[in-house]
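ugh finaly. both done.
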Amino acid sequence: MNTDKHGFNLRNLRPYFHCWLCPKWACTLISNLQSPILLLAFALRLFRLDFQELRGDEAFGYFFSLRTYDDIIASTLSLHEPHPVGSYFLQHLWLGWAGHSEFALRFVSVWFGVLAVVLLYRLTRRLQLSPATASTAALLLAVSPYAIWHSQDARMYSILLALTLASTWLMVEALQRGRWPVWSLYVAVSWLALHVHYFALFVLAAQNCFVIGRALLIPRVRFGAVQWVQWQLVLGFLYLPWFFTASETLTGYGGNGDSPGFGAMAQRGLAVFAAGESIPADWRTPVAVSAGLLLLIGVVRLWRGGGSQRRTLFLLLLLWAVPVLATWTSSQSRPIFNERYLIAAAPPFYLLLAVALTSPVRSSQLAIRISQFTISILLLLLLSASLSNHFFSPAYSKTRGWRELAVAFERFSAGIPPAQVRLAQNFPDPTIWYYYDGPVEHIVLPPAFNDTEGTTAAVSQLAAVGVTRVILPVQPAAWWDNGDIAPTALARQYALTAQLPVGVWPLEIYSRASGEYTPLSAGFVNGLRLTGVALEPTRITSRGLLVVYLRWDAAAADLRGSKKVFIHLLDSAGQIVGQADAPFQPNRGASESAAYGILLPDSAAIGPYRLIAGLYDPSLPAAPRIGTTDGGDSVELGDLKK
């Protein structure tokens, strides 16, 4: 019963399917890997997993994953999404089980990040390097700030890391054992990697360079190379349908990175592998140089090992250099270089580093032993500093302010019918759509990149349909809004009634009266008359914005000098709880009025409130207030309640 019709013993499958499919795989692997390293990797990736806010790409991936499987494929092709569908499929499935929290979104990456640590240990041992080297390589990956960053990121990079590592491990297994179950698993894993990120192709290219190069140099292994080519053809045949379907995206993607020179690329790549992106900028060059020297030591020690260790060196150099150089070369024709695209080249880096730190030395070489120990301590301190910055320093956060912004949207739209408010962004960043799920509609201004005419038309349409308030966080996005297109268009139809910092953005609130005014007839001794007032909202809301619209008649007014308007919101005891103080503004038009914003306090007591307004001339210090014609120094605008 254990043999199929072709005479193959099914027991031969157990070592492979046991590791990949059986729930006991973790126990099997932990027995081969020191469990403290694995637990450390899991703990560091789980620690403060949902502390940092989602960044734009994470939010985009979340919304993309909410689509049906068919729609994910169709949208990937129609929108020219530069990443294939594999991670979105996995996220869609996972969200259905785990929910939609930040923790749940990122946990998939945590799992694959820990799996990568296990796989690096297994690969190192399969390459016949020492247990000490394997454990050190796994430890370096476990505590790597670069790997942890991506393991706490709801994107495909941690998945790519694990799958390309598994592909390389299975390649070595297949070349050494030559059994079709291993080859089949290799093809399946490599196919999945290609459907997670197109740059998995660079790892496969490095593998092919190794196998073909080894076959050219060692005649006795050429039969294995023939098998290799056959299975590569199977892999290519399985991948070709998607390759041709998505070819327009592959050739047409413009990139969202940069195009560094070779020196800058080498410095950035070495520094980010060694210490991540959470170190000060002026540390990167010495860190990169130190990492390069350690790599050179690892290279020399493997070369001196001769035989199989030289072949291992050949493989590791290809796995490291080919993805890095291919990514950099691609960026020279379009701005596509970004450190995150190098994730698949990280394992050989840590493995070579581990060789440098653990290679045995003779007892007489005390100085070398001391150097190894000193370098290890310095590396540990560097990693600790980088991880501390990653977990605790706001300066190194992925993104900041979205949660505050969502609260601000709730705060400044309170008390107004949702149809009369819009939340505008001058850049189509989907992150706020994750954090704000209230009833107010989102819009993007400009509606397309640098679309001045479209912005003007969109703002005119907002005014036409009765939108009275537009809340705009101004994001630095020169490629989308390169000349304050959104604020300029809004200022033509609306008054800027509040501006305050929220998170990392200046938040601007634009207001326009709805047309419902309470008539007034209050004159001032300088001839200015106040003829109407409108309030929005009509009730007090804690921490909200009260906009006061005043309609003036300045036909007979003496406006020489610098006239200013004050508006005070008074509680039942006559104490000021909110105020506006601004230069006098004439009516914006025949049907418009001057607008003044009052930021309301954090907590406003329940009770009646009075609103008064007046004029003063700051150039007259002795008696700056301008009296009213009935002998007062202010005008009652009305009562409000909370």
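ok and the 2nd:
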Amino acid sequence: MALRKWCVFVLIGFAIMSVRGCDCAGDPGDPYKDCLDNDLDGYGDNCMLGPDCDDENPDLNFSCDCDVLEYEGCPCTEGEEPECWEADAKFLDVGICKAGKRFCENEKFTACIGQVLPEKERCDNIDNDCDGSTDEMLTCTDCGPRCHGVDTGPGTEQEFELDDDNNRGLEMDPNGNIVLEEGENIRLTFLYVANSDEGTVSKINTETGQEEGRYISALYSPDPRNRGSARASGNAPSRTAVDFNGDVWVANRAFNQQGTVTKIAHQNCPDLNGNQQVDTSRDANGNGRIELGDPAEYLGEADECILFTVNIGGNNSVPRALALDAGGIEGGMGNAWVGAYSENKFYKLDPSDGHVLAEVAIGLHPYGAAIDSKGILWSCQQATGRIVSIDTNNNTAGDVIQIEGWSGSYGIAVDMKDRVWVGGYQLEGAARYDPADGSSMTVPTPNVGVGRGIAADADGNIWLAHSWLTGGTRVGRVTRFNSDDGSQLQTFEFPSGSLETIGVGLDFDGYVWGVNRQSDDTCKLDPGTGAVECYPTGAGTYTYSDFTGFALRNFTAPRGTYWQVFEGCALPTETRWKQVTWEATVPDGTLVTIYVKFADTIDGLQSATRYGPFTESPVDLIAEGVLEGHYMLVEVILSTDVEDLTPIFKGLGAQWVCQGEN
């Protein structure tokens, strides 16, 4: 047996005396001759080992033997907690873990545990986070030598960078992490009302009530700039929907004609005629409303803020329902979903130019639409109590659902719990359907008026517009009640001249707006005091969709979103994606959710299958199937239910394998 000699040394920096037993004399020419120093670990040259330090325990060949009571798995006495450096036993990147300790558990020493210089685990076979394990919670070791990976975030080679294209509703904290943007930065201050009888749209300032713009609802003349073409009359606009940028989409029913959808920019309009200014509608004389006969205030088709008009379906398709989804890699823009009433179909439109991305047939005539936080679009048919869903993530329709005990429907909304609400129409009240359990609830409003437009606020209430009593008497009013049980019903009257309230919506200051068709005005209600002010619009005011953008920001997308694209193997080698990892601080009441997509081109990511949601790191992509494509898009969603509280997103990583690589 090899000569045993005892060594005594001082642990520099900790003033700890420890005794080690060495198993063999060692060979000065062997690379593992010095188990303690080589000027790497700070112990000093005391113990010389050869390659056969421990014949009975070959796994300990590169360390002193178990007599030293120092290494993982060696015998120990309960209560002993010797200090150590993790790299002693590994001879790898000495110094990553300093001033650690081993603990005696079940009469054997644990790994060296310490976090003076903590790091995130990586696919490098090193104990980066100093917890005694290497690459734990990662599947990258399955990749073997062919595994590739990248980390992004503070402290990595690729720091986070936010720009207009890769995020919505987010900002950087002082440490370079991603957090939710403060609410003030996303508040919109305009609503858009369709004036059905004159084919225009009014832009109303929600702070002042003043009309600051009026736009033709459909471009109809041949246009060399290719913005669109529609009839000059009979557009009959109704639903409007405001996107994340404050731009508005308008559905034109155009009965017995070609139905269309128009998009109008809120700001950053193009200078189409090159005269170094944007020619658009404005309140030139400052009287708070737009005069159609004044070319300085109303420009018709010459208005450069009208981005485009596109045809929807065939002749007499009657585009009615309109809603916007949470969008994709375009950042602040979401796709528009337009329901063609006569065709029992929805069209999904690209936000940049309105071209059709998908067509989805449904089992009813779409009258209104709203999209919940899961990306499920809900649509109702007028005066039936029937609703249907479309998964906007994969463009598939569900079965038609009859709300139990309810035969009325008109406007539609989703609340903060993703429950679906419809107004009565022919019935005085509203009804709720809960997709989570299939349950239904009705809320009668006797002697208040039939239910028309409907909206949810951020405080757990439902607001319902009322147009007339069942006997035919026209009224102008809205009601409020609790969304959980229908209690606390309260009625708010508009001035006597404001009649037939069709639509209701919330602005970002907490005020409630009613749209009145018979009186061509819109009224602003203070829910706290009951005070009401009304402001004129155009002729035939007729809107009861998300005309402020409040529902989109609070219910469809109550969150901030970050998109990052990872590029895989050099072409033409195929990429097989293995996993996604992330690091985040997630306080109670907040959430980080991950989705992924794969495609061979950047453009292809938009329509690719969306996998998720994932809420725990790491995500084993192998378990999701064979996920291939040159690019992977990771969608990171930060959300909160607590005011002024945000999750903190600190890092994002990806691993992949190149097929056929040696």
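summary for the 2nd one i guess: The helical segments are 550-556.
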